[in-house]
Amino acid sequence: MNKNILILGLCFLLVSCGDSQEWVVTGLSLHEGNTFQMSVPSNWSVITQDSQILPSPKTSQIELAVSSEELKYGFSNNLLILSQKLDKKVSSTDFSILNNVWSTREYVEYLKLESKSIDFLDSDTSNIYIFEAKYNIQTPKFKYLQVGKVCKDTGYLVTIALSTDIKDTSKYEEMIKTFQSK
Predict the structure, then answer these.
(1) Other beta carbons within 10 Å of 170
(2) DSSP assignment string, 118-157
(3) Which site among 18, 23, 78, 117 is 20 to 30 Å from 136 CA-CA?
(4) Stated pTM of the model
């Protein structure tokens, strides 16, 4: 009995030690932006502005874009974080609701699959929207997870785009929960 407890303790210690930036157990790495941090899949690559595949937002700034190396149907799962300065104080939940209203108007063939409350690791709460849509009329339909998060006077829109083949989005929801301001 004591031997089993010792072995479990050593396993925990081995998993806990090492590079603090790498979350070996979950396969996530901590990405630190200038004003936020979030854990993202360690095997996803950062997409740079000069890649010419990123959108050109009119009223926001791209903070982070990462994508999976795995291509399926010419598409790779990806994460995009946009930020914008807010004129007035608003909750993360309200920011998320407002952005979802915008999404229903801007995406093509928008179909809401689910909306629910999400609790971030920093104890803030927001709404997450899971929907299928086309980004524009030329693109195929994708599954999106989208949530708004407010940090001080900045609103962040976190969007994950996935293949519609993915039915269980729980691991992506857990990843979103790691977003927090510095």
Answers:
(1) 7
(2) EE-TTS-EEEEEEEEEESSTTSPEEEEEEEEEEETTEEEE
(3) 117
(4) 0.81
